[in-house]
Design a protein that fits this description.
The complex is a heterodimer of chains A (310) and B (680). Chain A is built from 15 helices and 13 strands. With 310 residues, chain A is an alpha/beta fold. In chain A, the strands form 3 sheets. Chain A has a 6-stranded mixed sheet with strand order 6-7-8-3-9-10, with helices on both faces. A 4-stranded antiparallel sheet of chain A has the order 2-1-4-5, covered by helices on one side. Chain B has 30 helices and 13 strands. Chain B has a 5-stranded mixed sheet with strand order 7-6-8-5-9. In chain B, α18 packs antiparallel against α19 and α26 runs antiparallel to α28. Chain B is elongated, with a radius of gyration of 34 Å. Chain B starts with a helix and ends in a 12-residue tail after the last helix. The chains are: A alpha/beta (310), B alpha/beta (680). At the A-B interface, α2, β6, α4 and α7 of A face α27 and α28 of B.
Chain lengths: 310, 680
C-alpha cells in the first residue's frame, strides 16, 4: 500500500532522515517510534509531502506521490496531530467537513458523512454539532481531530502523536477506539509516537528510529525477542521485556484445552493480565471464556511463563 | 470603583454648593435703545460684582412699557431720562425740565412722592431728542439750527423725517413744530415702531424711502460717521434728558448699597464719553454689553471671573460676545428658583443613587436622567440669558457643568461596564445616545448655547468639514490597511523582514505630526510641479495630499505590527493541520490565519482610526481641511466656542469609532486566546 524507498531529508549539513525504506501493508497499522529528534515526525510528514524529501520516494498504491500537486495528494490522506489542530473559529461540524468541502462533495453527502462520523466518535450531533472546539473536553477535541482526518474516507491515515495530550485513562480509551475505527473502515494507518507501550499495543509492525535511521521494522514480538540493535533492545525495555511479550498475546490465542475452577478471564485479555490475575488470586490456572461466555480452554501459570521466553 | 464614585459625589456637591442664599434678585431692565441697554448692563454687572444677584431684562420695550413694568414691580431698576418726568406728570411746560439739576430735583421729588421711585445719580449729559439732516442737504440749504430747518420746511423744503413712534406721538415732534413754525404731513414721516436711533440714522444716511432727516439722541455716536448734521436746538424747545437710574424704594431698602455702587459710574459719564461709547455700538457694531464690560474693566470696577467663581463653580459662562472672557453665572442667578432647586434635587438624588444603590441598571438610569436634566438645564440657562433674537451674546457651559458631566459620564460608563452588555447592545446604546442628542440639536433645544451659535454661523461649512474629516481619517486608514496587511503577512512569512520594516515604521511614528506634514510638503510640491498628472489627482504640497500621506505613514505601524502579532498568535497546530488536510497556502491564509488574526488586526485598525480622527485635526494647519479648521480658527480668534465646535465632534467621532470597532473585535473574537504551540 505504502512503499517508502530510500527516503532522506537534509537541512543544510544536517541529515534528519537517512535513507529509510519500509512498506506498510494495506489495512494494517504501522507505528514509527523513537526518541525526540529521531526524525520520526519528519518521516511521517514526508509521506504527505508536508516536508519534501531530499532524496528517495514514496509510492502510494504503486504511484509516486510527486505525480500530483501536494494539496491534492493530502486530500486523499487523512492527517491528525497532537493537540488536535482543530480550527478554533469553526464549529465541530465545520471542522469535520473541511476536506469534503475542499473536495467539493454535495452538501447532503457531507452532512450524512459528518453525522455518521460524529456517531462513530460518540459525539452527540444534537449537543456538539455547533459547538466550538474550546467548548469540548480534551478527549472530545481529539476525537473531532481524528473524525476530521477520516471525513473524506481516505485509504491512508497519518497520525503524529495523536494521543500525546491526553491523560492516561482517556488515552487508553482513545487507543481502543482507534483500533475499532481501523477494523470498521479498514484504513491503513501510520502513527508516530515516542511511547513504546502505545507502539506495541497499536502497531502490527513497529519501526524503531534513532538519529534519522530506521533501526528495525518488524512485528512487536520480533522486536522483543530479536532486537536488531542494542538501541532497539534498550528502547523496547530490557528489564520488563518478558512482561511486554506476554502483553502481546491474548488469552484466546494461548488457551489450552481443558477446564479450570480458577478465575475466569476473557479471551481478549492479554497473557500479562491473566498472569497478574493468577498471581493475585493465588490460583494455579484460569478458565478462558469466549465473547459468547462459553469456555474456550484453560491457562496455567507454567503455560503463560513459557510464552514469556524468546 | 465605588470608592471613586463616592469621592466623585463629594465633587458634585462641592461643585453645586454651598449654594448661594436665595435672595431676591434685582431685575435690571432698559428701554430699547442701545445706550439705555448699555448703561443698564453696566449697572447690572456692577451689582453682580458686588455680590447682589441680578436678573437681566434689557430692552423690554419703549418708555411706557418699561415705566409700567417698574410701577407694577415687574422690574426693579432701569435707566430713565430726566426730561421724561414732564410727560409722566403732565407738566412739560415747567421750565425746570430744560435744566439738568433743576429737572432732576423736580423729577426725583415728584416720582418719589407719587410712586416711591428713587432717582439715583444722573449722568452729566443730555440725551435729548434732536433732528439731524444729511450733510449734503444741510450744505445745500444752509441748515445749521432748528430755526433754519423750520424756515426751510415751512418754505416747501423737501423733507422726509424718520423717527420713532414715541417721538412722533408723545408731543416731542409737535413741540418742535410749534416752536420752529413748521408742520410735517404724514407723507413726510416714516415712523418706526422701535426706538433705535441706530436705525433712523442708518436710514437717513442711506436715503431709505427718501428719508433725509433723522430723529437722533444728543449723545448718539453715529451721527458724524453717517454724514448727518445735528440741528442745534437754538430756542431751547427740548427739555434736558440726562440718563438717570431709577429704582423702586423697596428694592433699595433691601440693598441700600446700590446707591453708592451706582454713583461713581453715573458720575463718570459726560456727553463725550457717552458719544464715544455709543459710537462703538452704533458705528463699530460692537454689542452694547461688550462695550459695557470693557468700560467697567478699564475703570477697574470689574474683574474678570469675580468673587462668585471662587465661592461656587459657575454653571454657565456668560459672554457679551464671542471673544471676551466670560463672567460666571450660577444656576440660581439664571433660572427661576423652582427650576434651580429642582435641578439640584435631581442631582442630589443621582448622587444618592451613586452612593447607596448597587444595582447597575438603576445607576445607569439615574446617570442618564442626570445627564438629561443637566443638558436641559444648560439649554434653559442659555435661553434665559439670551434676549430673543440676540445673536451676539454667548452662553457657554461653565465649570460646574463640565464637572457634573464628567461625574455623570463616569457613573454611566461604570454602570454599563458592570452590566456587561453584548457588543450589539453597546452599539445600539451609542446609536440611541447619538439619535437623542441629534434630535435635540435638530429641535433647536441648544440653539442658544455658544457652540450652537458658532454652528449656526458655520452651518454651511460644518457638514463639509465633518465629511472631509471622516474622509481624511478613513481614507488614510483604508490605504494603510491595503498596504499594511500584505506587508504584515510578508513580515510574518519572512521573519527576516520584520526588524527593518517595523524599525522604519517605528521611526516614522516618532516624528511629530506637524513636522511630518512639513517634511512631506517639499517632495509632494515638487512632484506636483513635475508631473501634471499628479497635480490633477490632487497631489500638492499643501492640502489633503500631505495630510493623507502622513496619516497613512502613521497608520502603517499599528496595522503591520498587529497583523504580524495576530498571525503569530494563530495556533501552529491549526495551520499545520490545515496544510495537512490539503488546503492550499492561499486557503490557509484566507480561511484560517486571517480569520484567527482578525481580532488583533481590527484592534490595530481601531487604534489607527481613533489616532487618525484626532490627528486629522492638525491637517487643517496645512490646508487639509476637516474639523481642525474650526479648532485653529477658534484659537486664532480666541473664540473658545469655535474651538469646541471642532473639538466636540472630533471627540464624539473618536469615541463612536472605538465603541464600534471594540464591538466588532468582540464579535469576531469568539475564541479564547490560544497561545502559540511549538511546531511538531
Amino acid at each position: 500500500m505504502i512503499q517508502i524507498e530510500g527516503l532522506t531529508k537534509q537541512y543544510g549539513a544536517t541529515t534528519v532522515v537517512d535513507r529509510v525504506s519500509f512498506n506498510v501493508e494495506r489495512n494494517s497499522i504501522a507505528v514509527i517510534v523513537g526518541t525526540s529528534g529521531s526524525g520520526k515526525s519528519t518521516l511521517l510528514r514526508m509521506i504527505n509531502r508536508l516536508v519534501e524529501p531530499t532524496a528517495g520516494r514514496v509510492l502510494l498504491d504503486g504511484a509516486d506521490t510527486r505525480s500530483e500537486p501536494a494539496h491534492l495528494l493530502r486530500r486523499r490522506i487523512g492527517y491528525a496531530i497532537q493537540g488536535h489542530g482543530l480550527f478554533p473559529h469553526r464549529t465541530v461540524v465545520e471542522n469535520v467537513a473541511t476536506v469534503p468541502r475542499l473536495l467539493g462533495w454535495p452538501e447532503a453527502r457531507i452532512r450524512s458523512r459528518v453525522h455518521e462520523l460524529m456517531e462513530v466518535f460518540q459525539l452527540d450531533p444534537g449537543l456538539y454539532a455547533n459547538a466550538f472546539p474550546h467548548q469540548l473536553s480534551g478527549g472530545q477535541q481529539q476525537r473531532v481531530g481524528v473524525a476530521r482526518a477520516l471525513a473524506a474516507e481516505p485509504a491512508v491515515l497519518l497520525m503524529d502523536e495523536p494521543f500525546g495530550a491526553l491523560d492516561p485513562i482517556i488515552r487508553a480509551k482513545a487507543q481502543e477506539d482507534l483500533l475499532g475505527i481501523q477494523r470498521r473502515f479498514g484504513t491503513t494507518m501510520v502513527l508516530v509516537t515516542h511511547d513504546m507501550d502505545e507502539a506495541f499495543h497499536l502497531g502490527e509492525r513497529v519501526a524503531v528510529m534513532s538519529q534519522g535511521r530506521l533501526l528495525q521494522y518488524d512485528r512487536p514480538a520480533v522486536l522483543l525477542t530479536h532486537p536488531a540493535d542494542p538501541f532497539v533492545a534498550r528502547m523496547t525495555g530490557i528489564t520488563d521485556r518478558a512482561m511486554k511479550l506476554l502483553a502481546l498475546t491474548t488469552a484466546g490465542e494461548a488457551a489450552l484445552p481443558g477446564g479450570s475452577d480458577g478465575p475466569r478471564v476473557a479471551s481478549s485479555a492479554s497473557l500479562r493480565e491473566v498472569l497478574s490475575e493468577l498471581l493475585w488470586s493465588g490460583a494455579a490456572s484460569a478458565l478462558v471464556l469466549g465473547e459468547d461466555g462459553a469456555p474456550r480452554g484453560q491457562l496455567t501459570v507454567a503455560a503463560i511463563l513459557a510464552r514469556g521466553r524468546p | 470603583m465605588s470608592k471613586i464614585l463616592k469621592s466623585l459625589c463629594a465633587v458634585v456637591l462641592l461643585a453645586l454648593g454651598p449654594a448661594p442664599p436665595l435672595e431676591a434678585a434685582v431685575v435690571v431692565s432698559s428701554k430699547l435703545s442701545s445706550e439705555s441697554a448699555m448703561l443698564g448692563q453696566m449697572i447690572r454687572l456692577l451689582l453682580l460684582a458686588e455680590g447682589i444677584p441680578t436678573v437681566d431684562r434689557m430692552r423690554i420695550g419703549a418708555t411706557p412699557v418699561v415705566r409700567q413694568a417698574l410701577l407694577a414691580g415687574e422690574i426693579d431698576l432701569y435707566i430713565e431720562y430726566t426730561g421724561n418726568a414732564g410727560l409722566f406728570f403732565n407738566d412739560t411746560a415747567d421750565p425746570a425740565w430744560k435744566d439738568l439739576d433743576r429737572g432732576y430735583e423736580l423729577g426725583a421729588r415728584l416720582d418719589y412722592a407719587a410712586n416711591r421711585i428713587v432717582w439715583l445719580t444722573p449722568a452729566r449729559a443730555s440725551n435729548a431728542w434732536a433732528l439731524a439732516v444729511r450733510s449734503d442737504v444741510a450744505q445745500a440749504y444752509h441748515l445749521r439750527t432748528m430755526s433754519d430747518f423750520g424756515r426751510w420746511v415751512a418754505g416747501g423744503g423737501h423733507v422726509v423725517l424718520i423717527c420713532s413712534a414715541e417721538f412722533a406721538n408723545a408731543g416731542t415732534l409737535r413741540s418742535l413744530e410749534r416752536t420752529y413754525g413748521f408742520v410735517l404731513r404724514s407723507s413726510q414721516l416714516i415712523v418706526l415702531a422701535g426706538g433705535e436711533t441706530a436705525a433712523t440714522i442708518a436710514a437717513a444716511a442711506a436715503g431709505t424711502n427718501g428719508a433725509n432727516t433723522a430723529m437722533v439722541y444728543g449723545t448718539d455716536g453715529g451721527i458724524a460717521a453717517a454724514r448727518l448734521q445735528i440741528l442745534e436746538d437754538d430756542r431751547h424747545d427740548q427739555p434736558v434728558y440726562a440718563p438717570v437710574p431709577v429704582i423702586r424704594e423697596t428694592v433699595l431698602r433691601q440693598y441700600p448699597q446700590i446707591a453708592a455702587i451706582v454713583k461713581p459710574l453715573m458720575a463718570s459719564f459726560d456727553r463725550e464719553t457717552l458719544q464715544q461709547l455709543n459710537a462703538r455700538v452704533q458705528v463699530n457694531g460692537e454689542s452694547d454689553e461688550a462695550v459695557a464690560v470693557e468700560y467697567l474693566k478699564n475703570r477697574g470696577w470689574l474683574k474678570s471671573g469675580g468673587l462668585a467663581a471662587v465661592i461656587w463653580l459657575p454653571f454657565v459662562v456668560f459672554k457679551t460676545n464671542r471673544i471676551v472672557p466670560g463672567e460666571p453665572r450660577g444656576l440660581q442667578q439664571v433660572l427661576p428658583a423652582w427650576a434651580a432647586l429642582g435641578f439640584q434635587a435631581v442631582l442630589l438624588l443621582t448622587a444618592a443613587v451613586a452612593v447607596g444603590v448597587a444595582d447597575a441598571k438603576r445607576r445607569l438610569i439615574a446617570a442618564l436622567g442626570g445627564v438629561t436634566v443637566l443638558a436641559l438645564a444648560v439649554a434653559a440657562a442659555a435661553n434665559a440669558l439670551t434676549p430673543a433674537g440676540d445673536k451676539v451674546i454667548r452662553v457657554a457651559p461653565g465649570a460646574a457643568f463640565w464637572v457634573l458631566l464628567i461625574c455623570l459620564g463616569l457613573l454611566a460608563t461604570d454602570a454599563i461596564t458592570r452590566m456587561r452588555p453584548g457588543p450589539l447592545v453597546r452599539v445600539l446604546l451609542l446609536a440611541l445616545a447619538i439619535a437623542i442628542a441629534g434630535a435635540a440639536l435638530a429641535q433647536g433645544t441648544f440653539d442658544n448655547l455658544s457652540v450652537m451659535r458658532e454652528y449656526a454661523v458655520n452651518a454651511g461649512r460644518f457638514p463639509v468639514e465633518l465629511w472631509r474629516h471622516i474622509w481624511l481619517a478613513g481614507g488614510s486608514l483604508i490605504a494603510a490597511v491595503i498596504v499594511g496587511m500584505p506587508l504584515g503577512i510578508l513580515c510574518h512569512r519572512a521573519p527576516r523582514l520584520q526588524p527593518p520594516v517595523l524599525g522604519t515604521l517605528n521611526i516614522i511614528q516618532t516624528i511629530p505630526a506637524i513636522a511630518l506634514f512639513g517634511i512631506l510638503m517639499a517632495p509632494l510640491g515638487a512632484l506636483a510641479a513635475r508631473l501634471p498628472a499628479a497635480a490633477a489627482l490632487g497631489i500638492r504640497g499643501i492640502g489633503a495630499a500631505p495630510a493623507v500621506v502622513a496619516l497613512f505613514l502613521y497608520s502603517l505601524l499599528p496595522i503591520v505590527a498587529n497583523t504580524v502579532v495576530g498571525l503569530r498568535r494563530v495556533s501552529h497546530a491549526a495551520v499545520d493541520a490545515a496544510l495537512g488536510v490539503g488546503m492550499t497556502p492561499r486557503q490557509v491564509l484566507s480561511g484560517i490565519e486571517l480569520p484567527l488574526a482578525l481580532p488583533v488586526i481590527i484592534t490595530g485598525i481601531r487604534v489607527v482610526l481613533v489616532q487618525n480622527i484626532g490627528m486629522v485635526t492638525v491637517a487643517a494647519l496645512i490646508g487639509g481641511g476637516g474639523l481642525g479648521t474650526f479648532v485653529f480658527q477658534g484659537i486664532g480668534q480666541t473664540a473658545v466656542d469655535l474651538v469646541l465646535l471642532g473639538a466636540i465632534p472630533i471627540v464624539v467621532l473618536a469615541f463612536s469609532a472605538s465603541v464600534l470597532l471594540d464591538a466588532l473585535v468582540e464579535v469576531l473574537d469568539r475564541t479564547p486566546f490560544t497561545a502559540p504551540e511549538s511546531a511538531p
